[in-house]
Design brief:
Elements (H helix, E strand, L loop, with lengths): L5 H5 L2 E5 L7 H10 L1 H6 L1 E5 L2 H11 L10 E3 L8 H6 L5 E4 L16 H20 L4 E4 L4 H7 L7 H8 L10 E6 L2 E5 L6 H6 L3 H14 L4 E4 L14 H15 L4 E5 L1 H9 L5 E4 L2 H12 L4 E5 L4 E4 L17 H16 L4
Helix pairs in contact: 6-7, 10-11, 12-13
Length: 351
C-alpha cells in the first residue's frame, strides 16, 4: 500500500456487484460509474463479467450514455494486491470479472442458468473483497432469487440471508436485520421473505426485543414499533398480540436504555415518522414496512443490512428484465444508494 498517496487512502473503496447479468444491474452500474463525480469521491470497483459488458455494448451501446473506454478489466492476479492495481489505474474505473477466462454470451432480458451462476459468483467475490480485503463497502445490484435457487443453490432466499450466512450470523432479528433508508424515513423489518402467516407467528416478545437490541447496536435515535393489528389491537378489542407480546418487549427494551415506544397503529405511523415523530420504525412484517417505504420514497430508498462485519447496501428495485439491454434503465436509484453509502461510511455506519 506504500504506492497509494494520502488522497487515495481517504477515498473509500466501493465494491459494486453486477447482480443478474441479464437484468439491468450491469447497465445502471456502468452508467453511474461513467459519471465523473463518482471517481472524485471514491474508488469504484465493479465486479462484473466481461460477457455482461460486451452483451450491453452489443445491444444498447449506441444509446447508452456510457464512456466505454473508461473501464479497465483487471488481470485476475490483481486480486492478490488489489490496492496497488487500483492505484495504477486512477483515471479508469476498474472491473474484476468473477468468472475470468470463461467464454459465454449474456442476452439482456433473457436470463438463464449461466446468468444465475454469474450473479452468485459476483456476489461471492464481492463478499470476499469486502470481508477480507480493502473494501469499505459492498453495493449489490438486483438479482433473481428464484433463478439462483433453481439453478445454483436451492437454499438461496436472497441477498440478506446469504450475506449473513457467509458472515456466520445465524439468527435474523438477533444478529442482523434488513433495513431501508430514505431521506425522511428509516425502517427495519422484524421478518423478511416469508409468508404472512409465518411472519405473524414470529411476532413474539423475544423476537421484538431481539430486533430492538439489534437496532440499538447499529442505529441511533428514537424507535417506534408498528402495531400488528389495526389500531395496535385497540386495547384487546381487535387483537391481543400487541398487548401480549409487543408492548412488554418495548417496555423491557426501554428499561434497558433504548429510546423506543409503541406499538402504535401502523395506518398512520409512517406518515407521522416522515413528519419527525421518530427516527426509526420497526415494522412487524415485510410488506408493512415496504409498502410505507416504497410509497414514500420508491427509487430513493437504500437497502442496508444491519449487523454485517462490513457495510452492505443495495437498491430497492428488481432486475427489470423487460427493459434490460435497451439502454432505458434509470440509474438514479443506484446513484442515490451510492450517495447514501458514502454518507454511511463518513458516519461510521451508525445513523
Amino acid at each position: 500500500m506504500s504506492d497509494i498517496d494520502s488522497s487515495d487512502r481517504q477515498r473509500p473503496l466501493l465494491i459494486l456487484t453486477q447482480g443478474d447479468p441479464a437484468g439491468i444491474g450491469p447497465e445502471i452500474l456502468l452508467k453511474v460509474a461513467s459519471e465523473p463525480w463518482l471517481s472524485e469521491v471514491c474508488t469504484p470497483l465493479l465486479v462484473m463479467e466481461r460477457a455482461a459488458v460486451e452483451g450491453l455494448r452489443d445491444t444498447a451501446g449506441a444509446s447508452m450514455d456510457v464512456a466505454w473506454d473508461k473501464f479497465h478489466f483487471l488481470d485476475p492476479a490483481a486480486r492478490a494486491n488489489l490496492h496497488t492495481a487500483l492505484a495504477r489505474t486512477q483515471r479508469e474505473v476498474c472491473v474484476l470479472d468473477p468468472l475470468p477466462g470463461e467464454s459465454r454470451t449474456v442476452e439482456p432480458g433473457r436470463p438463464g442458468p449461466e446468468d444465475a451462476r454469474g450473479a452468485l459468483a459476483a456476489l461471492d467475490l464481492g463478499i470476499e473483497l469486502a470481508s477480507d480485503g480493502p473494501g469499505a463497502a459492498l453495493i449489490t445490484a438486483p438479482l433473481n432469487k428464484a433463478e439462483i435457487a433453481q439453478y445454483v443453490d436451492p437454499e438461496f432466499r436472497g441477498h440478506t440471508d446469504y450475506l449473513a450466512q457467509k458472515a456466520n450470523l445465524s439468527n435474523y432479528g438477533e444478529d442482523y436485520l434488513m433495513a431501508f433508508l430514505a431521506p425522511d424515513l428509516k425502517v427495519a423489518l422484524l421478518s423478511t421473505h416469508i409468508s404472512l402467516q409465518q411472519a405473524i407467528d414470529r411476532v413474539t416478545h423475544d423476537s421484538v426485543l431481539s430486533a430492538l437490541r439489534c437496532m440499538g447496536r447499529h442505529c441511533k435515535g428514537r424507535i417506534t414499533v408498528a402495531g400488528l393489528d389495526p389500531h395496535a389491537g385497540e386495547g384487546g378489542l381487535i387483537g391481543t398480540v400487541d398487548d401480549r407480546e409487543v408492548r412488554p418487549a418495548v417496555e423491557q427494551a426501554r428499561a434497558e436504555g433504548l429510546d423506543v415506544q409503541g406499538p402504535e397503529s401502523a395506518d398512520s405511523l409512517f406518515a407521522r415518522a416522515i413528519r419527525g415523530s421518530c427516527d426509526w420504525v420497526l415494522a412487524l412484517y415485510h410488506d408493512q414496512g415496504l409498502i410505507g417505504m416504497k410509497t414514500a420514497a420508491f427509487g430513493d430508498a437504500t437497502n442496508w443490512t444491519l449487523g454485517l462485519p462490513y457495510l452492505r447496501t443495495s437498491v430497492d428495485h428488481g432486475t427489470a428484465y423487460d427493459i434490460a439491454g435497451k439502454g432505458q434503465a434509470d440509474p438514479s436509484s443506484l446513484r442515490a444508494v451510492v450517495q447514501t453509502t458514502l454518507r454511511l461510511v463518513e458516519q461510521g455506519t451508525l445513523v
